[in-house]
Amino acid sequence: MSATTGNDIFDVNPYEANAGLSVLESEVLWEYAKLAQHIKLLTVRTKELSEQPDQKLVARLRVLERKMGLVLTLFKASVWGVINEQEAVKVSGQYADNAI
């Protein structure tokens, strides 16, 4: 196998000139080499993301967090409104019964 850099593996089959391999074998080994390089690149990118957060993603999540806070506040207000409305109906029903 010749010395190739990580990006050369996608352009040049390093197993092609090996006399001990058939064409099919060299193609299969090349596909495995490309797959291994993809996994290495994925590992590097995953490590980069885990070491420092993606600033665009953090900003978008902060916007979402504020919106969810607003939704929670509105939900609590709605529940409070329904509870107060039910109590008002009970109280007005008691006054109606007492008036008769």
In summary, what is this structure?
This protein is mainly α and 100 residues long. It is built from two helices and no strands.
- As residue ranges, the low-confidence spans are none
Helix share bin = over 70%
**Topology order in helix (H) and strand (E) letters:** HH
Taking Cα atoms only, what radius of gyration do you get, to the nearest Å? 33 Å
List the total number of helices. Answer: 2
End-to-end Cα distance: 102 Å
Number of strand elements = 0
Q: What is the mean predicted local confidence, pLDDT?
A: 85
Structural class: mainly alpha
Gross geometry: rod-shaped
Largest sheet: none
Number of domains: 1
Beta-strand proportion: under 5%
Family: Belongs to the DASH complex DAD3 family.
GO molecular function: microtubule plus-end binding
Organism: Scleroderma citrinum Foug A
Subcellular location: Chromosome, Centromere, Kinetochore; Cytoplasm, Cytoskeleton, Spindle; Nucleus
Structure write-up:
The protein is rod-shaped, with a radius of gyration of 33 Å. With 100 residues, the chain is mostly helical. 74% of the residues lie in helices and 0% in strands. The mean pLDDT is 85. The N and C termini lie far apart (102 Å). The chain has one domain.
